[in-house]
Design a protein that fits this description.
The chain has one domain. The protein has no helices and five strands.
């Protein structure tokens, strides 16, 4: 399903919208403004050992914690 994330530049509300085909303007559900812009969304990819979000460090399936940078899951890379 083509679900996109948007940000309203009037009220700073972030929301998702199901978009089918081309739409001229996406209205903010909070304030009704047409001043919205599409955000770049994260995506998920299925891998053999589970799932991982692209663009983020994946936690090993063997039970390890964090990324190779900190090993504890508390740095900015680990989220």
């Amino acid at each position: 399903m083509p679900i996109f994330e948007y940000l309203c530049e009037e009220c700073d509300d972030q929301f998702e919208e199901l978009v089918i085909g081309e739409q001229d303007a996406i209205l903010c559900p909070q304030c009704g403004s047409k001043q919205t812009r599409k955000l770049i969304s994260r995506c998920r990819a299925k891998v053999k050992s589970g799932s991982a979000e692209l663009g983020e460090a994946a936690v090993p399936a063997s039970g390890g914690s964090g990324c190779s940078g900190c090993g504890g899951g508390s740095c900015a890379t680990c989220g």
